[in-house]
């Protein structure tokens, strides 16, 4: 799909194939949403979480931003679009899971690593400041300066973990995690090899999700 007309036609195809064929399902959605999962993902057009995870309307409550970043409580702006969505998802929808989904080839992380390329984009530079701890951490690794893929991958993964850490800085969210009513998950979509990787706290690494499919 490349132009506006295609998108409108796409809706009519969707209406014919889904809205009109599964009226019971879509009628139920008219009465409200009850998603069990909130996803924080990147704006990147290639990483739509609903498409990648095979979801239907009503399955996911989604907030997307450049590089899937979350401000810590002492960094959140007023108004803050990310935290308004998280607050609604957690307090009103009572989601049981929050997924932070980062990805390979992330333009936001590329901008973080190459600030000269976004020197004229003040909003992007300002937003990426949230990920500066990732750069500080990168400086303490032994990843060579010329290993661009390794540096990107490290920062893409670290930014996901930073967002998880920042989510936990909100007491009302932390309390739900402590109580076991809310679980946080870190996902990394690797478009190089088509893998969705899940953070494994024991291994302290992102592991291909095929390894956990079938487990409870
Ligand atoms: Zn991205």
Question: Would you write up a description of this structure?
Answer:
With 216 residues, this protein is α/β, with parallel strands linked by helices. The protein has 2 domains: 1-32, no CATH class; 33-211, 3-Layer(aba) Sandwich (Beta-carbonic Anhydrase, Chain A). It is built from 9 helices and 6 strands. It has helices at 4-19, 23-29, 49-52, 81-92, 107-113, 122-128, 132-138, 148-167, 171-179, and strands at 37-42, 60-65, 97-103, 183-190, 195-200, 205-208. The protein has a 6-stranded mixed β-sheet, with helices on one face. A hairpin with a 4-residue loop joins strand 4 (183-190) and strand 5 (195-200). Helix 7 (132-138) packs across helix 8 (148-167). The radius of gyration is 19 Å and the shape is globular. The N and C termini lie far apart (38 Å). The model has no long low-confidence stretch (mean pLDDT 95). Bound molecules: zinc ion.
Give a quick summary of the entry:
This protein has helices at residues 4-19, 23-29, 49-52, 81-92, 107-113, 122-128, 132-138, 148-167, 171-179, and strands at residues 37-42, 60-65, 97-103, 183-190, 195-200, 205-208. The protein has 216 residues and is of the alpha/beta class. Helix 3 links the parallel strand 1 (37-42) and strand 2 (60-65).
Q: List the bound ligands.
A: zinc ion
Q: How are helices and strands ordered from N to C?
A: HHEHEHEHHHHHEEE
CATH superfamily of the largest domain: Carbonic anhydrase
Based on secondary structure, the structural category is alpha/beta
Top CATH class of the largest domain:
Alpha Beta
Low-confidence stretches: none
Tell me what the CATH architecture of the largest domain is: 3-Layer(aba) Sandwich
Instruction: Tally the structural domains.
Output: 2
Helix percentage: 40-55%
CA distance, first residue to last residue: 38 Å
Q: Might you state the CATH topology name of the largest domain?
A: Beta-carbonic Anhydrase, Chain A
Number of strands: 6
Instruction: Give the overall silhouette.
Output: globular
Radius of gyration: 19 Å
**Beta-strand level of the residues, as a percent range?**
15-25%
Number of helical runs? Answer: 9
Order the strands across the largest sheet as they lie in space. 2-1-3-4-5-6
Biggest sheet character: 6 strands, mixed
Mean pLDDT: 95
